[in-house]
Amino acid sequence: IVYAQVESPGGEGLPLVLSFHGYGDNMHNFQHTDVHVAWPDAIVVYFQGLKTQRGLPGWQVESGGDNRDLKFVDKALASLRESYNIDDDRIYATGFSNGGMFTYLLWAERPNVFAAYAPVAARLGPSVQPEQPKPLFHVAGKRDQVVHFSDQETAIEVAIEINAVGNARTRCGEGCTVYGPSTPAPVMTWIHAAAHVYPHGTTEKIVSFFRDNSRTR
Predict the structure, then answer these.
(1) Per the confidence metrics, is the pTM higher than 0.85?
(2) Calpha distance 144→123 (Å, rounded)
């Protein structure tokens, strides 16, 4: 599902957000996260996952095999560039749960494509090792038993190390922290008290983070 303006303001390229649903979900349901509502000036694409080995739609979380989902995104980006005036410095990826794990994979495998990433309730796949510093916003629930909170903490620690944000940090609201706020690749976290959910306010925080972080930041 694609939400896009017909015309770019002043002929300028538009930001692009790719959004990936959780395992077993679908694009029609996930569009109700309303990224397109929170950022009406962006092109927002809600992707539909293909069936996995267990028969439900989802995303690869590690590189290997035929890399069908990485290739899917490559082809989708090529098609979107043919149809819309996209600002290549403002392309973003976000996703929930399994879609968030795919978002982490995109950081590792397509670091030169995206300006920033925002995984929600996700962890790193065992073999996923991002190497290039990139702005990252991770949303995690302390009571998450689907993607254990400890695994999400590990992913955040990896991001902090890769982005070399140092010890500088600022608060950005209740449970919200920005590590390395003045660095080129900050790490922002929002740790909430709930479980495996996409909490109210997540989309607005993601959009704000993306707006603040382009490749020319």
Answers:
(1) yes
(2) 12
